[in-house]
């Protein structure tokens, strides 16, 4: 009864916000704020000839900046909503000021930003009409690991060490909140690292949710190198392919990428040291989103079986990134 009463009260408080009893001149009442609405569509001609509904998209206003800058913005107000199944959105009770409109769509990589700066004044109810997001695209997707949803939840999350079990999260959707799951990687792969074969492996069982260093003993950690194996029927000489890597989080890690030659002195691509999220150590499944678009020279590839090596270098104090998805 207490729980049901709390849920009813929550809805009352939600509908009552922004509160009318606040006396501060800095707290704007409902009539002093503004609203915006519109519909977000996704344009990807390699998937559909028509525009797609951005169903369930996250649409919000934040201080003006670059696409995706809202992730790191902490000095201004932000106002967000989830779009309906047809991509329609309506953001209410926006404090007056200048904003950019940002969005991201589950199932599609990248960030959307409306180029225009929106100025919200008291009483505004702005209708933006149809907005179109075009995800980064250079050609048809040859293969993909995971789902581009900024979360590592779809990957393999192991059972916890029995001495760390939190019974609240047994058979729970948030099973990744169990403590110490990152240490299970060394138990599952004590001598060699993960190998994922396109067309044979299943990311829900064969792709560990976080690429971490292997713990050898209390004070010793080893870098890990994962492999993605895939077959190419042919390679177009002189052409450039695209390898996109989306990271759900990173904690003082550097991801190095090698194509068919892991022993070359310099990686074909390196992120540099990125992230201070600590998502894994904090029992989370995502933090700041990172997207890297890597140009792959045809000289790096061969006809037949190819191997991409993902090597993680990091400080052993922090835990590195869960990977949200990778596609070529």
The fourth-level CATH homologous superfamily of the largest domain is: Galactose-binding domain-like
SSE class: mainly beta
Characterize the largest beta sheet: strand count, sense, and whether it forms a barrel: 6 strands, mixed
Order of helices and strands: HEEEEEEEEEEHEHEEEEEEEEEE
Indicate the CATH class of the largest domain: Mainly Beta
Helix content: under 10%
> CATH topology of the largest domain, anyone?
Jelly Rolls
Return residue spans where pLDDT drops below 50 for at least 5 consecutive residues.
Answer: 315-328
Radius of gyration: 23 Å
Number of domains: 2
Gross CATH architecture of the largest domain: Sandwich
Distance between the termini: 52 Å
> How many H/I helical runs?
3
Number of strands: 21
Shape: globular
Description:
With 328 residues, this protein is mainly β. It has two domains: 2-133, Immunoglobulin-like; 144-327, Galactose-binding domain-like (Jelly Rolls, Sandwich), CATH 2.60.120. 7% of the residues lie in helices and 36% in strands. It is built from three helices and 21 strands. Strands 11, 14, 16, 17, 18 and 20 form a six-stranded mixed β-sheet that branches. Strands 3, 4, 6, 7 and 8 form a five-stranded antiparallel β-sheet that branches. It starts with a helix and ends with a strand. The model is unreliable at 315-328 (pLDDT under 50). GO terms for molecular function: carbohydrate binding. Keywords: Signal. Residues 55-126, 141-314 form the Rhamnogalacturonan lyase domain.
Give the topology.
Blueprint: H1 2-16, E1 34-42, E2 52-53, E3 58-62, E4 79-82, E5 88-94, E6 97-104, E7 112-113, E8 118-120, E9 125-133, E10 144-146, H2 184-188, E11 195-197, H3 203-206, E12 214-217, E13 220-222, E14 224-232, E15 240-247, E16 251-259, E17 269-270, E18 274-276, E19 290-297, E20 304-314, E21 323-327
Keywords: Signal
Organism: Panicum virgatum
GO molecular function: carbohydrate binding
């Amino acid at each position: 009864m207490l729980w049901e009463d709390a849920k009813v009260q929550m809805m009352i408080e939600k509908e009552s916000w922004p509160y009318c009893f606040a006396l501060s001149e800095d707290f704007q009442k409902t009539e002093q704020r503004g609203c915006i609405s519109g519909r977000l569509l996704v344009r990807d001609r390699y998937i559909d000839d028509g525009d797609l509904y951005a169903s369930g998209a996250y649409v919000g206003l934040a201080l003006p900046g670059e696409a995706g800058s809202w992730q790191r913005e902490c000095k201004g107000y932000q106002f967000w909503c989830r779009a309906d199944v047809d991509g329609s959105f309506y953001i209410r009770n926006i404090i007056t000021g200048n904003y950019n409109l940002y969005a991201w769509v589950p199932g599609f990589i990248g960030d959307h930003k409306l180029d225009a700066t929106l100025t919200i004044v008291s009483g505004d109810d702005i209708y933006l009409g149809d907005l179109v997001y075009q995800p980064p695209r250079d050609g048809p997707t040859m293969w993909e690991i995971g789902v581009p949803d900024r979360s590592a939840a779809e990957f393999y999350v192991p059972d916890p060490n029995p001495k760390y079990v939190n019974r609240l999260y047994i058979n729970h959707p948030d099973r990744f909140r169990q403590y110490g799951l990152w240490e299970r990687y060394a138990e599952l792969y004590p001598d060699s690292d993960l190998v994922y074969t396109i067309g044979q492996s299943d990311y829900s069982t064969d792709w560990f949710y976080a690429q971490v260093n292997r713990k050898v003993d209390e004070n010793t950690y080893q870098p890990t190198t994962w492999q993605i194996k895939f077959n190419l029927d042919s390679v177009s000489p002189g052409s450039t392919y695209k390898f996109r890597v989306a990271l759900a989080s990173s904690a003082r890690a550097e991801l190095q990428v090698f194509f068919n030659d892991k022993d070359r002195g310099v990686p074909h691509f390196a992120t540099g040291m990125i992230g201070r999220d600590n998502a894994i150590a904090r029992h989370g499944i995502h933090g700041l989103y990172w997207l890297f678009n890597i140009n792959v020279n045809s000289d790096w590839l061969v006809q037949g079986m190819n191997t991409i090596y993902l090597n993680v270098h990091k400080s052993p104090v922090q835990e590195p990134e869960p990977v949200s998805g990778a596609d070529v």
